[in-house]
């Protein structure tokens, strides 16, 4: 057991009394030390946060165009292919329904 503790760092956290009470009750039900429950909970939380962050950052650099003026011209680039309100876009190979 001491070999495992040797590679760990001690830290102090402040928690509400209700959380502490619930944590001690859970530890007693499971027959596990509170420190083990806290470590396992932190590991799960951090793994989930890392997964979310990787998922949310997938879009970065997806739209690299090689142009340096996109930020300045974003309105022009966004609206250039849109038609005025009330007109349908022209589609090739289809006839208009009458």
How would you describe this protein?
The chain is mainly alpha-helical and 98 residues long. It is 49% helix and 0% strand. The protein contains 4 helices and no strands.
Q: Kindly name the structural category.
A: mainly alpha
Oligomer: single chain
Query: How many β-strand stretches?
Result: 0
Provide a count of the helices.
4
Tell me the span between the first and last alpha carbons: 81 Å
Query: What percentage of the residues does DSSP assign to strands (E)?
Result: under 5%
Summarize it:
The protein is mainly α and 98 residues long. The chain has four helices and no strands.
List keywords for this structure.
98 residues, mainly alpha, 4 helices
């Amino acid at each position: 057991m001491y070999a495992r503790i040797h590679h760990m760092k001690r830290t102090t956290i402040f928690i509400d009394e209700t959380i502490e009470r619930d944590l001690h009750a859970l530890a007693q039900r499971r027959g596990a030390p509170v420190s083990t429950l806290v470590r396992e909970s932190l590991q799960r939380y951090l793994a989930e946060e890392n997964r979310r962050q990787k998922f949310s950052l997938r879009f970065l650099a997806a739209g690299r165009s090689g142009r340096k003026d996109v930020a300045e011209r974003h309105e022009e680039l966004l609206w250039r292919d849109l038609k005025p309100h009330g007109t349908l876009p022209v589609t090739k190979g289809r006839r208009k329904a009458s």
